[in-house]
Design brief:
Number of strands: 2
Radius of gyration: 20 Å
Order of helices and strands: HHHHHEEHHHHHHHHHH
CATH topology: Farnesyl Diphosphate Synthase
Structural class: mainly alpha
CATH superfamily: Farnesyl Diphosphate Synthase
CATH architecture: Orthogonal Bundle
CATH class: Mainly Alpha
Number of domains: 1
Length: 324
C-alpha cells in the first residue's frame, strides 16, 4: 500500500498551490482570529479531503481554478465541523495537540467554526461558483441531520443497522461524497460522471466510518489494549449493533445498562469488547467495510486509466487499510 506522500504525486503541484490559496483565504484583520487561524494551519492533518477533490477532477481533465475553490470550500467546511465537534464532545485534544476550545474556550471556538463556515460560503459567492456552493451546502445539511439523529438515537440506545447506516451516510459519507462530486463538477465533465463520483464518494465515506468503528476494538499503541472510547461516549458502532442482535437477553441487558449507567467502568467496558469479539462483531463490520470498498472501486472501473486514477484507487485502499 502506498503512503500519503506517494498517493499525492499526480497532484503534488496542485496541492502546493492549494496550500497557499487556503492560507490566504484565512487571513483576517482580527489579531485573535489570525492567531487561531495560524494555529489551525500549523496542525493540519493528512488533507485527504482536498486530495479526493483534486484526484476526482484530474481523472476527467486537468484541474481548473474551480477545483481550487472546491478544495478550499471543502477544507473550510471540514475544519469548521472539527472545531464545533470538539466543543460538542468536550474534547481537549485533536490529533495529539490541544483543541481550539481547550486553549480559547467554547465561546471563541463556536465563533471560529462559524467564521470558517461563512468564509467558505463567501468564497463560493465571490467566485460565482453556485454549483459548488449547492453541493457543499447540501453536505452541511446532511452532516447536521446525521449528528442530531445520532444524538437522538444514542439517548435511547435503540439504533438498528438501518439507522446506523442512515447516520453515517449523512454524518461522515456526505462530506467525502461532496469532495468527489465537487471535484468532478469543477473539471467540467458530464452530469453522468459527476453523479458517478458522488456515489463513489458515498461508498468510500461509509467504508471510512466503519474503519473508524473498528479502531475502538483494536489495540492502542499508547496503552496496549482497545480504547473502548466510543462505548464510553455511548456511541453505537456497527460491531456493537451486530453484537446486541446476536447475544442473549441477559448479555444485552448488561451492555445496555453499562452504556447507560456505568460507561466509565473499565472492567465492564473490557467485558463488552470481549463480547463483541466473541460474537464476531468485528468480522461482520470488516466484511461490510470491504463490501463498500469493493463497490467504490467498481465505480472507478468505468473511468479511463491514468496516474490520477491509480492514485485515487490507492487513496481508497488507504482509507480501509490505515492503522490510525
Amino acid at each position: 500500500m502506498l503512503n500519503i506522500k506517494e498517493i499525492k504525486k499526480p497532484i503534488s503541484n496542485e496541492m502546493n498551490v492549494f496550500e497557499d490559496k487556503f492560507k490566504s483565504s484565512l487571513k483576517t484583520r482580527v489579531p485573535l482570529l489570525d492567531k487561531i487561524m495560524h494555529y489551525i494551519i500549523k496542525r493540519k492533518g493528512k488533507q485527504m479531503r482536498p486530495m479526493f477533490v483534486f484526484l476526482c477532477a484530474k481523472i476527467f481533465n486537468n484541474t481548473k481554478e474551480s477545483t481550487y475553490t472546491a478544495a478550499s470550500l471543502i477544507e473550510l467546511l471540514h475544519t469548521a465541523t472539527l472545531v464545533h465537534d470538539d466543543v460538542i464532545d468536550e474534547a481537549n485534544f485533536r490529533r495529539g495537540v490541544f483543541s481550539i476550545n481547550a486553549l480559547w474556550k467554547n465561546k471563541v471556538s463556536v465563533l471560529v467554526g462559524d467564521f470558517l463556515l461563512s468564509r467558505g460560503l463567501l468564497l463560493a459567492v465571490e467566485k460565482e461558483e453556485f454549483g459548488l456552493l449547492k453541493i457543499v451546502s447540501k453536505a452541511v445539511k446532511e452532516m447536521s441531520e446525521g449528528e442530531l439523529l445520532q444524538i437522538e438515537k444514542t439517548r435511547r440506545l435503540n439504533i438498528t443497522e438501518d439507522i446506523y447506516f442512515d447516520i453515517i451516510r449523512k454524518k461522515t459519507a456526505a462530506l467525502i461524497s461532496a469532495c468527489c462530486e465537487s471535484g468532478a463538477a469543477s473539471s467540467g465533465t458530464s452530469e453522468e460522471n459527476i453523479n458517478l463520483m458522488k456515489e463513489f464518494g458515498e461508498k468510500v465515506g461509509i467504508a471510512f466510518q466503519i474503519k473508524d468503528d473498528l479502531f475502538d476494538y483494536t489495540q492502542s499503541p499508547l496503552i496496549g489494549k482497545p480504547t473502548g472510547l466510543d462505548i464510553r461516549e455511548k456511541k453505537m458502532t456497527l460491531p456493537l449493533i451486530y453484537t446486541l442482535n446476536n447475544i442473549s437477553k441477559q448479555e444485552k441487558r448488561f451492555i445496555i445498562n453499562t452504556i447507560k449507567n456505568d460507561s466509565k467502568n473499565s472492567k465492564k467496558i473490557e467485558r463488552i469488547i470481549l463480547l463483541v469479539k466473541k460474537t464476531k462483531g468485528l468480522e461482520f463490520a470488516e466484511n461490510k467495510m470491504n463490501d463498500y470498498y469493493n463497490e467504490a472501486l467498481g465505480f472507478l472501473e468505468k473511468i479511463n486509466d491514468s496516474e490520477a486514477k491509480k492514485s485515487l484507487i490507492e487513496l481508497v485502499k488507504y482509507v480501509v487499510k490505515r492503522q490510525k
